[in-house]
Amino acid sequence: MPVATVGDTASHEVQVTDEAIDAFAELSGDDNPIHLDDAYAAESMFGGRVAHGMLSAAAVSAALASLPGDIVYLEQELSFNAPVRPGETVRAAVEVVEDLGDDRLRVRTEAFVDARDERVLDGEATILSVAHEDD
């Protein structure tokens, strides 16, 4: 199996449903009412329920895992730019932008809600990309 190199890209989409938000809250233990309580969230700065930011970040993780080679996620810097609401689809996109040596790569990471043409997350990751031992 080849390893990731500069210029490689990958993407992953996540349907953000009420059920996905509820499951993420259960899994993570993050029961902030802006994610779970319609009445509470309606009175918040968001004017309604929003997904956990880390749900969008999880789509980035899935996109990174789609790059060639065995991928080890080492580091991530994130900025959350806009909320994601139930019923929207988040598309994460990653691009390898620099070879840091020792099998380490710098990757641009982004997530979008295409229906709104809006970037909801951006950042940079460091990954390790190595060939699978059987190859």
Could you give a short description of this structure?
This protein is α+β, with helices and mostly antiparallel strands. Helices cover 24% and strands 40% of the residues.
Structural overview:
The chain is of the alpha+beta class and 135 residues long. It has four helices and five strands, in the order βααααββββ. The protein has a five-stranded antiparallel beta sheet with strand order 1-3-4-5-2, covered by helices on one side. Strand 4 (104-113) and strand 5 form a beta hairpin. The N and C termini lie close together (6 Å). The model has no long low-confidence stretch (mean pLDDT 96).
Radius of gyration: 16 Å
The low-pLDDT segments are none
Query: How much helix, percentage-wise, in residues?
Result: 10-25%
Overall average residue pLDDT: 96
> Quick one: biggest sheet?
5 strands, antiparallel
Sheet-strand content, in percent, reads: 35-45%
Shape field: elongated
Classification by helices and strands: alpha+beta
Strand order of the largest sheet: 1-3-4-5-2
Tally of extended strands?
5
Which series of helices and strands comes N to C?
Answer: EHHHHEEEE
Q: How large is the count of helical segments?
A: 4
Report the end-to-end length measured between terminal Cα atoms.
Answer: 6 Å
